[in-house]
Amino acid sequence: MSPLRLAFLLIALCGVAAWQVTVIPESLMQMTVGPVLAPAAIVAALSLVVVLYGISAWRGRQVDMSQDDGQQALPGANARLLFLLGGGVAFMTLVIPLGFVLPATLCGMGIARAFDAPLNAKSALVCGLIAAVFWVVFARLLGVGLGPALPWWI
What we know:
With 154 residues, the chain is mainly α. It folds into two domains: 1-66; 76-154, no CATH class. 64% of the residues lie in helices and 0% in strands. The protein has helices at residues 3-22, 37-58, 77-98, 101-114, 121-141. The longest helix is centred in the first third of the chain and has 22 residues, at 37-58. The protein is flat, with a radius of gyration of 19 Å. It starts with a helix and ends in a 13-residue tail after the last helix.
């Protein structure tokens, strides 16, 4: 895929993300910082980066990997991508039935494996601790509705 086509695809994705931010329901409480602020700021920042990338691609300053100019992808690139995407898909599909911590641990392990970390007990423990701390901070301390930490039967 050429850099310009990639830029158009990313701009379209930012448009979908911006639309999703507009459908987030407002909080029933009067809050200074509502549930829309952080997602809107993130989408705005990513949209700015995508527009800058698109301008750079239009000016021909991005490398076109679709042309064979002697550059090759790193070995195992497809497996890395699958681990990265698989972790995200595992989180999205398992968060409702299994709570937050277990799917987030699996997601973290997939992301870690995409960056060449081994899949072992140590990575499971580290990812589990990060997921648990994240849940405690956001769900308990800040009151963000992340759902239960673990499924009800554990």
